[in-house]
Every structure is written in structure tokens, then in C-alpha cells.
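REVIEWER CHECKLIST
Item 1: Sequence provided? yes
Item 2: Single chain? yes
Item 3: Sequence as submitted:
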Amino acid sequence: MKSFLLGLGLTLTTLLASASDIAIAISPFQAKASGEVIFNQVYGLFRQVKLGDSLIILDGNGAVIATLDVRNEPPFENENIRASQNIKALRKLESFTDKMSPSGRTLGAIDVPSVLAEVARHYTDVTDIVLMGSALYDQHAQLDMTDGAYPSDDFILSPPATSVFGAKGVKYLQGKRVHWVLPEPFTESLYGKAVTRFYHIYIHALGGELVSFTANSDAVITRLLDGAAPLPFRYEVQPSGRLEMRSMPQAAVDNVEQTQFVSRTDIPVQSISASSPLVLGIQWTGEYIDLDVYARPIGGKALYYGQKRSVYGVHIKDQRTGDGDNKQFYERVEFRKPLDIDALRIGVNLYSTPHSDKKLTGTLSISLNDKTYQTRLEFDLSKGGNSGKDMRQTLDTGRDSFYSRFFTVDDIVSGGAEVASL
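Item 4: Structure as written out by the authors:
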């Protein structure tokens, strides 16, 4: 992460039209590999802001990490001067991003209400707020959004003393613009649309404008620098008279535009139920070899051997047939409630195996009703297994490792073949 010290003699060519302070709140609960990316994104923004601007860097609770100041003096048009005069602040930012880890929290967990309130209270010169973290709030059990639920509009319509998202009687985001960088895409999913709607109403109720809400960080920064128009506000607030968490199927009822379960595959997602589950299964042959399947729906917890049940379904471990080297192993996950299968993140991990110069082959299948698709699994056994240690990172980043494989439903359907049954 030392790249910011290189090439500092360049002169800035891209500047904002007018000076304004920018607050950037960064969740520390991100995949470790994201740290360098986030540092470089913030540093890239620092290179481009106007003379007289400041970047106030906050953590996911609104505490200050560092402040990067660009004095309104001609020498600060040079990157070398900017960096050298802010070297201590840059090192604080570097130290913060170096230590990023999910640490058992929701990927990208951030206390959005606290961050927005802190910025409004203490930084009146800030006009743009960048949130780099998840929209899935997990600070309070009553408002836990990590398992496919989202708050009713009544949480926003309430006073702050009653609800952490309460906006009644307050407009502290008046004149402020919010730019949201999500850790993973989900806004096109059914659940993602419901969550997007909730936060758009929340920010609007506080007097602010939502300019971006996407995992495309480059697009967010570009829109910030260009002073892009805010996203159009087209939502109708729907009070129910109760502070309640809504489930994803209820989201479809609330908004006619969201009643269709859209999928790139031809699997009929709307028919998922307890009597007709969506089943993911792995199969392999070989005694003393252990594979594990993981499946994480958007907004939900991963189902695997360590989390056997969730609101969506169950994990079923180790069905075995045969003997010795011909013993076959099966493991599956069953989803028993409707979910956005295009946003489903699937992983298979080589948990343990005797060291061998051979390769293990197996299959990963997905089945619903009369349709089953199957794709091939392959693992090198020369280094043994890793007990699932990198599985969370694999699901977060969507990248394979030596021990773990990542799949989407589309990977299985498009890259595999239709078979008779699971």
C-alpha cells in the first residue's frame, strides 16, 4: 500500500469546480483484500479535489481517523506537496485500511444513522458524504437486516428518541449529498430494491439527497467529482402504524413493480417453498476426504455445517453410501423460501484430506422441481485441506483459492449440464 508515495511529482489536472469538504465513512469490517483498494480510492479522490478542500475520514461509527487538508495555496496543486504535508494523516488511513477484517460482523458493517448524525453535528462545512460500507444494518437486534429483513417506513416516520432511523422533526442533512459505495452488488435483487427504497426515503426525510447507491466505486467517485444530479426520488411512504421488520416476500406485496422474481435462469424461483425447495448439492468419492458446501443469499447468513438453519432453509451434512475408496459422500443445502437466486453466492471448500498427488473430482448441482443442473468440481490434494479458513473471503470477493471454489447459480446452469436428478 505504498503506491501513494510514488510519482508524487505529477501536477493535478482534474479539479472540482468549487471548494467543499467531503466526509468519508469507511467500515473496518471489510475483506482484508479490500483494504488496499479502499486506500487507493480515497487517495485518488484526495489527488483530485479543489484547493481549499478537506477530506474528513471517519470509521464505521463516525469516529475520526484522519483529516486530509488541501490548502488554498498554489503549491498544493502539486501531488508531492499535497502528500508531504499530509503524510501523517495518510499513514493513519493506511494503518486503518491495513487492519480491515470482517471479524464476525456483517461484511462492510457500518452504523449509518450515527455516522450521518456525527457529520451533521460536527462538520457543518461538509456538503458530500461518502459511505463505504454495507446497507445491512446490524447494530440492534430489533433492526437486524442481515437475514433478509428490512424496517418498515414507520421507523423513519418516528422521532429519533423512538427509532434509531427516526427522522420526524429533524432535517440535519439539508444541503448534503450522500454517495454510497456498497461492498457487494445487490441493488438489482428483490431484497436490494427494498433496502434501496428504505434508505432513499430515510435520507430524503432527513433533508439530504442520495446521489449514488452501488458497488461500483469508480462510478460513485466520478459522480461525486462531476456534481451529478441525485437519484430521482419516486417512492411513496407507506405507514403501517407499527415498528416492524418486513420480510422479502412482503416487499413484493408492497410494491407491484417488484412482484416478479426475475432470474437469468429458467428455474421458477417463485415456486420455492418447504414442499418444493431449491436444493444445492455436492457429491464426491473417497474416504477421509471432506468437502463442505456454503450458500449465502443476499441479505442473509451463509448456510453451511456451522450454520445449519436460517429463515431461508437448512444445511444437511454427510449422507454416505458405499465402502472404502468407493464410499460416496453427499452434502446439500435446501432453501425453503423465495430468494433472489441470481444474487446467491455459493462456495465449496476442501476442508480436509490426506496429502496426495492425485486430484479430487466431484459435482455441484442445483435442483428445483423438474430441473437439475450439474457442474464439475476439482481440487488438488497435494497441500491437504484448510478447514474452511478462506471460505468467507471467497464468498465476499467471488474469487477461487487453492482450497475453495466460488459459484453463482448462473455458473452452474450455464457452465454445467442439465441432468435427470440431483
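Item 5: Key structural point noted by reviewer: The CA atoms of residues 35 and 97 lie 5 Å apart.
Item 6: Recommendation: ____
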